[in-house]
Amino acid sequence: MAIYQNFITILTIVNIPLAIVVMFMERRNVGVTWAWLMVLLFLPVVGFVVYLVFGQNLSKKKLYKLNKRTRETMASLIENQRREFRDHRVVFHDEAAANHADLIYMNLTSGFALYTQNNKVDIFTDGNAKFDSLFDDIERATNHIHLMYYIVSNDSLGNKLLDALTSKAKQGVKVRFLVDDIGSSHLPRHFFRRLKDAGGEVAYFFPSKIPYLNIRVNYRNHRKLVIIDGQIGYIGGINVGDEYLGLNSRYGFWRDSHLRITGYAVSQMQAHFMMDWNLASVDQIGRDVLALFPPAGDTGKAGVQIVSSGPNQPLEQIKNAYIKMINSAKETIYIQTPYFIPDESLLTALKMAVLSGKDVRIMLPSKPDHKMVYLASYSYLGELLEEGMKCYLYEKGFLHAKMIVVDGQVASVGTANVDIRSFKLNFEVNAILYDTETAGKLQRIFEDDMQVSRELTYEAYQQRSTYQRFKESCVRLLSPIL
């Protein structure tokens, strides 16, 4: 008995300074601090090891190192466009975009996201259509192919993509492939051997220096980008794997949202790829940089901003864009997301929209892929359903789309979910679309998805079992770090 008491005393004494370290490291976010203190309380000492793996703070680290000329060029472009907006000299190709000039200016100022027009946007709602288009574009590539994916699988789709890239590399096309070390942790390192042998380059984002152990579990590159010849860009939620083609029996049909963009916005996507690549690879992009930014043609009329966010940045640009879009709504707000774990600011914005008479609709998958995240998502729905928000549970398959469309005028499609992980912990990138034609299509896609969804009413929500509510309440306490 005395040995047990001494052990508890030692654990308590050791836990106190560890708790102080957690409070110091996470002092900017009270919710996250309390979540980690709870972990430390229930898992003394071990909880601190978990914190070191999952809870590192990158917010003060300057990861992207740009040379003086690049910094000055970027600063000049941003300031010139800011001046145009302040002086009301911007001519919008779509008149409705003028209603969101303050959103554009905010993204420009805080996220360094240039506003480009003359873009053409094609929408894909499933992986088969997206990859059919991508393979066609890869076949026509003549200069370079840049790819960035969170998940790449060693399956039929992964190998088909690798074969296509290897073939182009043998033809002299420069192929660079960036994958996330955790998202693709199951991928054998020899997977890319034939691409490398053909002259292609491969890099892993934040790789582990210790085999089978990566202490940067939280700060992952969740972005999905493909840029071909500096003229064509792909962005959205679809990774590389057979499940994204609907070939996994667990999920069935995989409903997602992905974009193919041509026009001026592709240069912004290229710049994001370059910065991530240069952060991850020893083979820096620099000498052939001019070939990566060819003059863009007038392919369309859509206004686009490419907005990124990451744990190394002081502001949560994508979350702020979501809130700004919600606050700008005059009539409708349609949201699709597989995970719904809003922080207090976003939850308040949605409540205000509902209470102001806006038609707010959120669509989630009816079956989870991550049980704990799904429980946390459910715990937040009640507050909004009670106020009058409508919630739909997608039943045709698995819903993985990350889309917001407001008033059929402005929309966002990209990699960021409506959850704290996407806002604070992951490196994400979204395309904000200022085009009534594209936004209108996305709104109609949402309405079509409603036909294969089940509405979750507040009355049905209230009928959940006591055990279900208990699980939701427990998991919600950890939502800031899920």
Quick synopsis:
With 482 residues, this protein is an alpha/beta fold.
Notable characteristics:
482 residues; 15-stranded mixed beta sheet; two-stranded parallel ribbon; 42% helix
Strand portion, in percent? 15-25%
Largest sheet: 15 strands, mixed
Euclidean distance between termini CA atoms: 37 Å
Helix/strand-derived class? alpha/beta
Give the strand order of the largest sheet, numbering strands 1, 2, ... along the chain: 4-3-2-5-6-8-1-9-18-16-15-10-12-13-19
The proportion of residues forming helix, as a percent range, comes to 40-55%
| Average pLDDT metric | 87
Number of helices: 16
Number of DSSP-assigned strands: 19
Please tell me what the overall shape is: globular
Radius of gyration: 23 Å
Low-confidence stretches: 45-50
Polypeptide structure, described:
The protein is an alpha/beta fold. Helices cover 42% and strands 20% of the residues. It contains 16 helices and 19 strands. The protein has helices spanning 2-25, 30-42, 46-54, 68-86, 101-111, 127-140, 156-170, 193-197, 265-280, 317-328, 344-355, 371-387, 420-425, 436-450, 458-462, 466-476; strands spanning 116-124, 144-149, 174-180, 201-205, 225-228, 232-236, 253-255, 258-262, 302-309, 332-336, 340-341, 359-365, 390-394, 397-399, 403-406, 410-414, 418-419, 428-434, 453-456. The protein has a 15-stranded mixed β-sheet, sandwiched between helices. Strands 7-14 form a two-stranded parallel ribbon. Strand 3 (174-180), helix 8 and strand 4 (201-205) form a beta-alpha-beta unit. Helix 2 (30-42) runs antiparallel to helix 3 and helix 4 runs antiparallel to helix 5. The longest helix is centred in the first third of the chain and has 24 residues, at 2-25. The protein is globular and about 60 Å long. The chain starts with a helix and ends in a 6-residue tail after the last helix. Residues 45-50 have low confidence and may be disordered.
